[in-house]
């Protein structure tokens, strides 16, 4: 088995090299083993594949298009910049791709409720949507800071029938929301399914979420060749937990001609502890939330405080597959700070009429920097993982004056 073959599918215990696995209490491990077995069964079931294909096309609106940013490319100079438009999916982001799969899985397992965390609210909205579609109760845990910051998404979740649980301890952001949702899940893992929102957590979730998200790269591979006659020279995606990135990257991992860049949040600066969430840039291998990955931790292995202007990226860990791809140097992990992300937010909005999620703006910002270093014939495909409707109040309040608002 080659390194990349191993990266594409974890071993039977859920490890990508030394990362991943499942480090949970025995009672919960029994439940996770049942989830793993049922997922491995249904993923090969023609009826399940047919059901997923139906919802992806007729409900989500897939395939999402690829758009050439002509005005942005001209302004920046250098390589041609393209966007995979996941922002055009129903609910406004890539999260719906795995949420529908998790909701169907929950129903097949006889669960009556799905529970999850959310940071920016995109996963929460997508899961509440999937729960309404499939007919399940839904409970979303969200930090108080993010509730205030991403208020439009909170309202969407409530309209969709989900219960939103404010998390009031610690920094009151994504890591605490994960803690809170996990605690609530442990009280009743029999009737509930914890629908993890990224390629993190104990096995099988990093594998399962990646598999559902891989539709992004599968589509993009065909679409880009139809548009340009060849594969993209470069891929760029933001990385918090890392689901949108693996969604795009997976289809290209064995293409040596394709350079791949994962963009982490540098916040106020990667040299300032507690003021960034650049896990692969500054973290070390360790345990968090029932699995092993790179994470930002103190000398006792406890998670450090993190910060990002993007609520969906401020997590002190990262997906185990990203940790493995980092070690084998297949993906180049880099970082973008808050200021550059916000500048890219406005740049894309005003040059192309596309308001990106702040998370996605990190990838756009790096693509702008990368394009300037490359020749005109080179191409960059950015995963525009979400739209910025949820962010506009926060952005205008905090940065509007600088940009003439």
How do the helices and strands line up, and which of them pair or pack?
Elements: H1 3-8, E1 15-16, E2 19-20, H2 26-42, H3 46-60, E3 66-68, H4 70-76, E4 80-85, H5 96-108, E5 113-118, H6 122-134, E6 137-143, H7 144-149, H8 151-159, E7 163-167, H9 174-186, E8 192-194, H10 205-213, H11 215-228, E9 234-238, H12 243-249, E10 259-267, H13 279-282, E11 284-288, E12 291-295, H14 320-327, E13 332-337, H15 338-352, H16 358-371, E14 379-384, H17 392-399
Parallel strand pairs: 4-14, 5-6, 5-8, 6-7, 9-10, 9-14, 10-13
Antiparallel strand pairs: 1-2, 3-4, 11-12
Helix pairs in contact: 3-5, 5-6, 5-10, 6-8, 10-12, 11-12, 15-16
Based on the model shown, name its key terms:
Rossmann fold, 17 helices, alpha/beta, globular, 405 residues, 14 strands, single chain
Give your account of this protein's structure.
Strands 3-4-14-9-10-13 form a six-stranded mixed sheet, with helices on both faces. It has a four-stranded parallel sheet with strand order 7-6-5-8, sandwiched between helices. Helix 3 (46-60) crosses helix 5 and helix 5 (96-108) crosses helix 10 (205-213). The chain has helices at 3-8, 26-42, 46-60, 70-76, 96-108, 122-134, 144-149, 151-159, 174-186, 205-213, 215-228, 243-249, 279-282, 320-327, 338-352, 358-371, 392-399, and strands at residues 15-16, 19-20, 66-68, 80-85, 113-118, 137-143, 163-167, 192-194, 234-238, 259-267, 284-288, 291-295, 332-337, 379-384. The N and C termini lie far apart (55 Å). The protein is α/β, with parallel strands linked by helices. It has two domains: 20-56 and 95-210, Rossmann fold; 63-92 and 214-403, Rossmann fold. The mean pLDDT is 95. Helix content is 44%, strand content 17%. It contains 17 helices and 14 strands.
